[in-house]
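Co-fold these.
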Amino acid sequence: MKIFSFKIQHSRTVKAALGRNMEDIPALFPELFKSADKLCLVTGSDAPPSLRARALALFPEGKKPRAYFWLPPSEKAKTLEQAGELASFLFENGFSRSSMIIAAGGGAVTDLAGFAASIYMRGVTWISVPTTFLAQIDAGLGGKTAVNLGGAKNIAGTFHQPALAVCDTAFLDSLPHAELRSGAGELVKYALIGPGALRGIVEKNLSKTLAGDKAALTACVSACAAYKLKLVAKDERDETGLRERLNLGHTAGHAFEAMAGGRLPHGEAVARGLRFALIASREQGLLGRTDFKKLNGLIDALRLPPATAVRRDFRQFLGLVSRDKKARGARNRFILVEGPGRLHPAEDLKTTVLKKAFQGALK
Ligand SMILES: NC(=O)c1ccc[n+]([C@@H]2O[C@H](COP(=O)([O-])OP(=O)(O)OC[C@H]3O[C@@H](n4cnc5c(N)ncnc54)[C@H](O)[C@@H]3O)[C@@H](O)[C@H]2O)c1
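Predicted complex below.
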């Protein structure tokens, strides 16, 4: 197990425990738990029993009172109503400003529980315990919390760093292949945005992670989580362009997710969003053929199933990308790729370029 400590600029210090088969987290971080008067463990109602058992191994029953709250499955958890229900539950059960929320689940659970932690009594401490591959390398880290509104992703949210992120890859043993593949969609993103060493780790382990190889998953979680937290520590609020790298593929990806009405896993949507970015970059003359082939090959390696759930409605797509919160007032704004690790934000791309990328991404 590796333990990291990141001082987030203008914010708190975030600790991260990354590894496999951890035990008794309160014993490892006594300072953090000393002042908590009560704990609330939040998880998804569709989580397998093994997830709850592992969460209890990490946070064994102690002397502190605790409560349990189950969220509806996946994206159904990410609503303002659910955040309100969790906050009301905490209030009814006597939770105070000194209480702590422990969110154990996929990105939907950590997004919603983190959001509720940020509004309850104007902010209580929370611990992020991501349990999917995708959430361990991305969603469960970085302090962005959110709910969806009006069918669009992450429209209301806050920045509220967890005091601690615990990425224990033993959780991934129960993950179905489709969820491993979804996580691998975000993994490919790291190969496109990261430095050579990180790209090397992803390239070496990508196919093994798809097969559920424990060592490969642990190597990728450690490398990607540490890289993400390093970026977040320097630019928590997307102000200098550093953190923006992590959004590669997400503008188109979020549109695809919305156009699938919740039937496209987030990581698959991101993988298609990455392909969108690569095609748009090639069409803009930014990305040469050799690099295109090499980077697109990583997406091919995911063997994505056909995106039948996504409506082929280019006008709807244009509407969604223009309303994306990352558009910053432009008609559209995308992060494009000049080569491995070299990114280039671009605004107001021509419709012909967007259409070609849209069609290619959904092939
Ligand atoms: N806040 C961020 O920075 C950030 C970044 C990327 C993605 N996200 C968000 O994360 C969400 C996607 O997260 P996700 O891919 O984890 O999906 P998810 O949270 O919907 O979980 C997928 C499924 O996996 C199940 N599951 C969770 N852990 C399991 C385990 N160990 N074994 C078996 N099943 C398990 C869940 O119950 C659920 O059914 C999206 O809402 C996305 O917007 C947030």
